[in-house]
Description:
By secondary structure, the chain is an all-alpha fold. It has helices at residues 4-39, 48-53, 57-74, 79-114, 118-143.
Amino acid sequence: MNIAFIGMAAALGLSAAGSAFGAGFAGMASVGAWKKCYASGKAAPFIMIAFSGAPLTQTIYGFLLMNFIKSAVAGGADAGLALGVGLFGGLAIGLSGLFQGKCAAAAADALGATGKGTANYFIVVGIVETVALFTLVFSLLLLG
């Protein structure tokens, strides 16, 4: 067995796990915020759907990283490097998804309570997203 395959699996699996946790946290908070809105007779902001789904992009980044690892190994890249990039890159991307979900959960709660600050909340969620993007790009540079 080629250890590069472990790196490929880790890139996708760890990224997707972070997305799952993040989307779960954000989704639960959105449902709770909507419940508070309904209970108090306020309009429930539909935009919270975007908070709930924001961490899903990390799964896409993990898939891309997996494919870039595959291509790099086919082009002669070291299998140990591929393993390390997959493990640590996938972990970093996954953690970005997890914490993006936590930020989105706080954003949903705040938006539900105040009805204000949507743009600010998306900026914070986007900053956490940037960690995953940087990880993907820097991982590609390592493989290249």
